[in-house]
Design brief:
CATH superfamily of the largest domain: Spore Coat Polysaccharide Biosynthesis Protein SpsA, Chain A
Largest sheet: 5 strands, mixed, barrel
Number of strands: 16
Strand content: 25-35%
Order of helices and strands: EHEHEHEEHEEEHEHHHHEEHEEEEE
CATH topology of the largest domain: Spore Coat Polysaccharide Biosynthesis Protein SpsA, Chain A
Structural class: alpha/beta
Oligomer: single chain
Distance between the termini: 43 Å
CATH class of the largest domain: Alpha Beta
Strand order of the largest sheet: 6-9-7-8-10
Number of domains: 2
Shape: globular
CATH architecture of the largest domain: Alpha-Beta Complex
Length: 342
């Protein structure tokens, strides 16, 4: 099994702390550690540094190595520009194939999430590798939602294929797009709906066959790369797009499996989600103290340890960082990314 940590976004919904120079997954958000460090330390319980790969851009590679000096330079795959998840996943497969690992199993690890308990990740990886060696189907992950979550895609699970050590693998019956809100709400209490949580697992050779069949415009440049051509020019030839442009075609025809995550998957994507995590874990955000007068359930973070005072307001976040100051209702935290566009 080859774990490939993949990161490259900025996390604009975590402005003003998250910015291109220091993206969200490198910020010390959890007990003074970044999500990148936490996920690296988790993988190190099972893998040696030379067995772990990282795919990111050149700037973020430098930050990653400054936080984790044992990260091997030769194990870093550089994306020369942003082309979205479809080309990025294909690049990981092509570069592993170029290294002679085309028939080995690789497992993509998104870096901006927490997995609790962490040992559940290794149970999932073990099952994913077993299934990967028995089938050429696309293997991914998902979890049962406790409420309607908009802005994410879903999978409809079919028959149970195998269960072992608390890990269940299902056939994927269908793909439910994030824009199908009526259908999502209808299926929410069916017990069959899973939030698609990625964790792509395949051999590079089998994944590249899917690219060749369903996205030949992606496969052509990837073929050049695994045959020895430079990444830069070929990667830029790949149209931007999500991996779902391939997987949504194979889900309804029995071409994929989904592993129900054997751990709690915590996506710290907004200040509201971080506040929820801090509250559940009994953590206190860094600041010089939060004073609430005539208000409650507020969240304050100050990079410079300033005291934060909130009067007459409920359910707001106040964030002070080098880039600026954010004041936002918690239920509007999903809109913070709009600031990056203004």
């Amino acid at each position: 099994m080859i774990p490939v940590i993949i990161c490259g976004g900025v996390g604009t919904k975590m402005w003003p702390l998250s910015r291109p120079e220091m993206p969200k997954h490198f910020l010390p958000l959890v007990k003074g550690k970044s999500l990148f460090e936490i996920n690296w330390e988790l993988l190190r319980k099972k893998f040696k540094p030379e067995e772990i790969y990282l795919q990111t851009n050149a700037d973020q590679a430098k930050i990653a190595q400054s936080l984790v000096p044992e990260l091997k330079t030769k194990n870093i795959f550089i994306e020369p520009e942003v082309r979205n998840q479809g080309p990025a996943t294909g690049l990981a497969a092509a570069l592993l194939k170029k290294l002679g690992k085309g028939d080995e199993t690789f497992f993509l690890v998104q870096v901006d999430d927490l997995r609790i308990p962490g040992e559940g990740l290794f149970k999932m990886m073990k099952m994913a590798e077993k299934m990967c060696l028995e089938t050429d189907k696309y293997i991914t992950g998902g979890f049962v939602p406790d409420r309607v979550v908009l802005g994410v895609d879903y999978l409809l699970k079919g028959d149970l294929i195998i269960e072992g050590d608390g890990v269940r693998v299902y056939a994927v019956e269908d793909y439910v797009d994030r824009n199908e809100e009526t259908r999502i709400r209808e299926l929410m209490n069916s017990g069959r709906l899973l939030v698609h949580a990625n964790h792509t697992t395949m051999t590079p050779n089998n994944l590249l066959k899917l690219y060749e069949k369903y996205r030949p415009d992606w496969y052509g440049p990837l073929e050049e790369i695994f045959n020895g051509a430079e990444v830069d020019g070929n990667f830029s030839r790949m149209p931007k797009g999500a991996i779902e442009e391939i997987t949504r075609q194979i889900h309804p025809i029995g071409g994929s499996l989904v592993i129900e995550l054997p751990f709690k998957w915590i996506d710290l994507g907004t200040w509201e989600s971080l506040d929820k995590y801090y509250s559940e874990e009994g953590l206190t955000p860094p600041n010089g103290g939060l004073i609430e007068i005539g208000g409650e359930n507020n969240f304050g973070w100050s990079d410079s340890k300033k005291k934060i005072s909130v009067i007459g307001l409920d359910h707001v976040v106040v964030i002070e960082g080098e880039e600026g100051i954010l004041v936002c209702r918690k239920d509007q935290c999903g809109r913070v990314g709009e600031i990056a566009k203004s």
